[in-house]
Amino acid sequence: MSTNKNNLFSNLKFDFPAGLVVYLVALPLCLGVALASTGRPDLLFSGIISGVVGGIVVGFLSGSALGVSGPAAGLVVIVLTAIETLGSFEAFLLAVVIAGAIQLLAGFMNAGIIGYYFPSSVIKGMLAAIGITLILKEIPHAFGYDADFMGDEAFSQKDGQNTLTEVYNSIRYSSAGAIIISIVSLGLLLLFDKPFMKRIELFKFLPGALFVVLTGILLNTLFSNFYPEIAMGGEHLVQLPVASSASEFFSFFKTPDFSAFNRVEIYTVAVTLAIVASLESLLSVEATDKLDPYKRNTPANRELKAQGIGNMISGLIGGLPITQVIVRSSANIESGGRTKMGTVIHGSILLLSAIFIPKYLNYIPLASLAAILLLVGYKLSKFSLYKGMYKLGKEQFFPFIVTVIAILSTDLLKGIAIGMLVAIYFILRKNYKHSYHYKKEEYKDGDVITIVLSEEVTFLNKGSIGLTLDHLPENSKVIIDGTKSLNIDYDVLEIIQEFKEHSAPMKNISVETIGIDSVAAVGGH
């Protein structure tokens, strides 16, 4: 096994099969997100464009070794609403370009630091929730019920259905052909996961997902010839636009309407896109780094710059907004990817296949691809993850499980926001309790009470410290020790000073402060 993770080409035997799997996962997701975002079949190729740009451009520019970017389901509602508000897809493309420029500027302004403030419990909750969402959302496709677009993540759908009713409907309106293909596909994937299969040279380079897709095509062809009543067609297969000529192919690419440059709504949409896309990317970066077996850290500011340039290029040639996407990133990791070449390879295959073999891609049953995503979902949300989080205690488990439930019942960003609120509550609660150490010892003239302040004492500790000072016994001696503190907020210094000058003399308490003045000087107070 190669240990040089930084050499992009020394790991091609790992990155190529991983890139191929990511391509198979990304293809239907790009098309599904495009259809849901625009509501127009003639704009399906916009999803492929953003997938290609996310793979090749962002892949090369990003500092993420395993992150994969492309069109995101989390932006569907924003994009659909924006196109309606702006009146044309071309005007919307201008907003995408401006959003990319805002992201690029944010990267230079070091705004990526926001990504470091997402608690681990929330990120792990996000991964678990996405895993469960994948399973629930792909069950209908595995059963041959394709009413919702592949790649949807939200609980409530535009058609009035939701994740649970879709599962119920899929059981009622299932297709025997799809179920057979799904079961065979899952069986093949589980077989390819066995250690003995990985020792066969051919299967080290060609992933199980490729054989699953080829098997799905073969089975559906057999159904068409011998059992037409269970054969699948139309919406149950990949539906990539097929150009009859070079000129028609190039017509799939659109350019922004620069005449809309002076419209206020363009900038409103651009700012919204920049904020939401940046948050989704930073969240995915944190999650991908946690899944990375080599535990590499992605430079968050560089990621914002890469996403910004990617969105500018995508908008200029007719693509949808881009973010880093955890589903594709986790597929890359689970398939053994090691460097960013896996991401670039997926984007390159996406481009080449759209040019040269779109007709043949449209033979792929969605049931085969659903099986691949079902296994990705299972690996993201294994029982061992819940068990491990539970063992860490309630301060980690509660934000984790609340994040999972919130994402499943709303959508990714709302769920993360709810999980963050719970995590912040526990952080504040812990901070409130552990801002200082209270030590009382016997002294010949009475009690000596030592209060040792922690490294960081903020305004959040104001209440607990003030309460402790108020309940100190009369006629005692108090030492407030700030020698270990790197910073003490003015609010806390003010409380200590007021206690020393006013409250303490009234209770005949002798107060000695150590290291407080020096900290105040450093803090500029």
TrEMBL record:
GO terms for cellular component: membrane. Keywords: Membrane, Transmembrane, Transmembrane helix. It is a multi-pass membrane protein. Pfam families: Sulfate_transp. It is found in: Membrane. InterPro entries: SLC26A/SulP_dom, SLC26A/SulP_fam. Residues 12-403 form the SLC26A/SulP transporter domain. This is SulP family inorganic anion transporter. It comes from Dyadobacter frigoris.
